[in-house]
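Appendix B, Record 12. Input sequence as logged:
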Amino acid sequence: APFDESNSHNPTYLSKQLGVPVFPLEQKGVLRTNCIDCLDRTNVAQFSAGVEALEQQLVVMGIRSSARLDPSSTIIRVLIDMYVEVGDYI
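Logged structural output:
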């Protein structure tokens, strides 16, 4: 069956179609950071918040059982590379 608006909110349907567990969660807030006096410090704050969010998401998705990621892990390196790549285009 095609994916459309009528079945987009059905976690069981999505789990079957995607082949992975789907958790019906919604974002409840927004984190906003402003440049105080240094762009580098703002970037560090945003990256730290991004790592924290990633750690929580991996647990909720059932990919990891612990919310702590090793700072030298491959997934953190990939996240750093993504931040660098996006920063190069801004």
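The chain has a mean pLDDT of 77.
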